[in-house]
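Minutes, project huddle
Topic: does the predicted pose make sense with iron/sulfur cluster bound?
PN asked that the exact inputs be recorded in the minutes so nobody has to dig through chat later. Recorded below.
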Amino acid sequence: MNLKNLDKIIEKEPAFRKRQIEKLIYQDAIDNWDKATVLPLKLREELKKETSLDIKVEVYESKDTKKALITLEDDSQIETVFMKHYDRNTVCVSSQVGCALGCKFCATGKLGLKRNLETEEILEQVLVFKRKEKINNIVFMGMGEPFLNYDNVLKAIRILNSENAFNIGARHISISTVGITEGIEKLAEERLQVNLAISLHAPNNDLRQKLMPVSKKYSLENVLRAVNEYIKKTNRKVMFEYTLIDNVNDSLYNARELARIMKHPLYMINLIKYNDTKEFKAPSNEKIKKFKEYIERAGIPVTERYGFGGDIHAACGQLCLKKS
Ligand code: SAH
Ligand code: SF4
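Predicted holo structure (tokens), as shared on screen:
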């Protein structure tokens, strides 16, 4: 897709055309300007010549998950995941090409960062699936760190949220961050009801710094301070993601440490069973159960994430452009 020349074309048109065209691209999700029959023929021809709605994509499917491998204008590639729940459909979008943060357990981290995604490139990932299915939920949990591409991510969220475009309620949009405090602080000022998720994965600074080098810059104390400020301003719940890795962060001692720092009425924990890589393995189900029970007994709301897409390398932390 290439909408770089769109503004130039719209500029010459009456104001209502901008809304009409936005609706065609994002709400009606047309894949070809010939379908834009509400527009005058001359304008349609110009749009066809100057912009492109084509998305270069390969899709891999499993039972309840699809993974799209999208090739962008500059030949960069990104991955996007579609998940079918019994009552809703979720798209998990990437915010960057690769990721600079190098978390030890994450396949995307091994790619390094190529560049930030443009707003249209974030939206195009949703369109790939919206052209065929209804989309109810968006999670910024694909490749990259959304708060290191803050402006483009927020612009995309406003269009996802807009009634004239995707019309997805802010409460159905989630952003996951390793805890970039500047991003958390800015989001608190946006007056948007989006969901914030923090990738925690370790209950103390020592372990967290080993797993997530970026946390040398953002200590647990500072991340939690920013989260608490965010909660004060927004009164929104915050989800902490904790990926359980065998013999790394899954002991009952770790559960106790975690319970101690998670005591806040608006904190929730989401446990993720690790998706195996060469370096690390998932704990046994028995161990996960015990860990979860400990947290529950400590009175902290805790859920377990359903593992979508492992068989097509589409699960959390597996997005690394591996053909499947
Ligand atoms: N960069 C952001 C957004 C990506 S979200 C962030 O890290 O929050 C992807 C989630 O999957 C993160 O919580 C990440 O820590 C987690 N993850 C990474 N590798 C994983 C793996 N192999 N198994 C399970 N979860 C993993
Ligand atoms: Fe980047 Fe998130 Fe993977 Fe860490 S877990 S390397 S921040 S994508």
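Observations noted during the meeting:
- The longest strand covers residues 77-84.
- Residues 103, 105-106, 141, 145, 176-178, 199, 201, 241, 243, 272, 274-275, 277, 316-317 surround S-adenosyl-L-homocysteine (ligand 1) (CB under 6 Å).
No decisions taken; revisit at the next huddle.
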